[in-house]
Amino acid sequence: MSSPVSRGFRHLRRPSAGEEGRVPPGQYVTQGFPVLSAGPTPHTPLPEWTFSIRQGGDTLKSWTWPEFQELPAQTVTADIHCVTRWSKLNTLWRGVSVDTLLGQVEHDAPYVLAFCDGGYTANLPVKDVTDGRAWVAFDYDGQPLQAEHGGPARLLVPHLYFWKSAKWVRGLELLDHDEPGFWETYGYHIYGDPWREQRYAGD
Amino acid sequence: MARTAVRGRLTWQVATVTSVAEETDSVRTIGLEVPGWPGHRAGQHLDVRLTAEDGYTAERSYSVATADGEPVAITVERLDDGEVSPYLTADLRAGDELELRGPIGRWFVWDTSDGGPLLLVAGGSGVVPLRAILRHRQRSGSDVPLRLLYSSRTLADVIYHRELDQYRDGAQVIYTLTRSQPPGWTGYSGRVDAAMLAQIAWPASQHPLAFVCGPTRFVETVAEQLVAVGYPPGRVKTERFGGT
Predict the structure, then answer these.
(1) pTM across the whole model
(2) A190 to chain B, minimum CA–CA distance in Å?
C-alpha cells in the first residue's frame, strides 16, 4: 500500500546539528519535559521510602533512602523517547546503576518487574537493565527529581520507550518469566524498542 | 471483525475525510470513513500519519471524539508551533485521504459495565475523550449519573458547546471560564480548584469513578484534589497533553 500524499503538508522540523541519527522513527524533538501518567501523582515521604529486590515473595535486599544515597551514584546523559512521540536529547540524570543493586544479590533470573508507588509496574529483561543500561535515578538536571516526573526515584532505561523508565519505583521483582506490567497490560508493547517503533502490542 | 478477535498488530490503513466542522476558531472536528474499523471504547485514541510530497512522514495521536457505532471522528486543536495540527485544522478537506491506525489504549476508557457515578473533568481540548464517554453513555441508554466539569478560557473556546448544553437525564455539564466571562454568565469563573470540586464532585462515599483530561498542570491539580477528598487513586484516571 502506498501512503496517500497530503498536499500542502510540509516538513517544518528539520533535525538540528547533532540530532541526526538520534531521533527514532515517528518521534519529534521537544525542549520541554511532558508528563504521561495514568492517575494521580503519589507522594511517598522519604522516611517511608525503601528500594527492595524481591524474588518469589522474599525480599532479598532492601535499602532505606539514606542507605540508597550511600551507594555509588553515576551521572548519566541520555536521549529519552516517549511513546507519545516526543524525544528529548541530552537529558542529565544522577542515579545508582542497576548493576550495583543486582550485584548485591545472588540470582539468575532472566526478567524483572519494576514495582512502584501507585501500583504501577513495568516488565524488562534483565539483560536490558544490566551492563550499564539502566539506573535508579533521583536527580534530574542537577535537582531532586520532582514527583510529577517520578520522584523521589524512577527507573531510567533510556534505550527503551520511556514508560519502561517506571516512575516512583520502589523495587525490582526477579522473575523466571516475562510478565506484562501496567501499560503493557493496557495495550502497549511488551518490550518497547523505539528504534523498531514497538509502541503497541503486536508492533 | 469480532471484538473478541485476537489482537494482532494495529496496521496502518487509509481513511477518507468525510467532513470537517469548525468547533471554535482553533478547533476542528474531522469525520473519517475508516473501512473495517473494528469498533472502539469511549476514551481510546488513534494514530494519524501524514506523508509530505517529499516522503517525509509525521505521526500524532488523537482521541476518538465519537462513541462506538458512530462514524469515527477526531477533534484537533491547532497548536501554532505544531507541525501536524496546523495542517489538519486548515488545509485538510473533505475527500482527502490520510493514514491511521487504532483504536489504542485500554486504560483511559469507560464502558457501561464500569458503572459510576462518573465525574469527568476537562481542561480545554481535554474534553474530546470525555465527550466520547458522554455520547457512549447516551447511546447505550445508561442511567449512570454523570457530571462533566469543563474548564475553558472563554465562552468562544468551548468545544461542542451546543451539544453539551443538550444533555439531560442524569448527565450534567458544568462550565467554568478562566479568562473572561460574558455578561450574565451563570457558570463558574476561574480555574478548577478545591472549592469548585467540593461543590461538583460526587462524594467519595458514592464510590465515583473520575476521568480527568487536560494540560499537565490542570490534571495534576484536579487529580490531587480528588485524592485529597477521598477518591482512591485507582478511581482517578488521567490523561494529559501538552508541554511541561
Answers:
(1) 0.94
(2) 12
The reply to whether B154 touches chain A by the CB within 8 Å rule is no
Could you read off the pLDDT of A40-53 as tens digits, one per residue? Answer: 999 999 999 999 99
Domain that holds residue B24: 13-104
CA pair distance A187, B63, nearest whole angstrom: 15
Of B104, B126, B155, the residue at which a domain comes to its end is B104
CATH code at position B197: 3.40.50.80
The answer on B120 and B36 residing in a single domain is no
Domain boundary among the residues B35, B69, B104 is at B104
pLDDT at B244 over 70: no
CB-based contact B223 A183, cutoff 8 Å: no
> Which positions 58-77 of B are in contact with A (Cβ < 8 Å)?
58-61
Asked if residues A106 and A42 have their Cβ atoms less than 8 Å apart, the reply is no
Q: Which domains does chain A have, with CATH numbers?
A: 28-32+52-196 (3.90.420.10)
